[in-house]
Design a protein that fits this description.
Blueprint (H helix, E strand, L loop, with lengths): L54 E5 L2 E5 L9 E5 L16 E4 L4
Antiparallel strand pairs: 1-4, 2-3
């Protein structure tokens, strides 16, 4: 099988029969600045083992985790997944980094 890919294009390949082309609103919503004061309790319904909303892992891997064994304040948490330094393709910082918020 051969697949020709083009620059500035997004592709999704799947082997499942229920896969379909995605979409977006036209026009897309206006960009908004990230709030200066931010609080999150991670009580959102997102798939398990997902990156938490508004976080962008740069070095290390974190995941949104629902801890069903904790009935208290720590049911929804952000936890570090990898505890050993992986083999990297480029220079990587010695500590884990996850960025939150607005790039401006």
């Amino acid at each position: 099988y051969t697949l020709e890919l083009y620059v500035d294009e997004v592709y999704t390949l799947t082997t499942i029969t229920t896969g379909h082309k995605g979409g977006f609103p036209n026009p897309p919503p206006e960009s908004q600045p990230f709030p200066k004061k931010y609080k999150d309790d991670f009580t959102v319904l997102i798939p398990p083992f997902s990156e938490a909303p508004n976080f962008a892992d740069q070095s290390g891997v974190f995941e949104y985790y629902r801890n069903a064994s904790d009935p208290g304040d720590h049911v929804f948490t952000l936890r570090q997944v990898i505890t050993q330094r992986p083999i990297t393709w480029a220079s990587d910082p010695p500590q884990t980094i996850s960025v939150i918020g607005d790039f401006q």
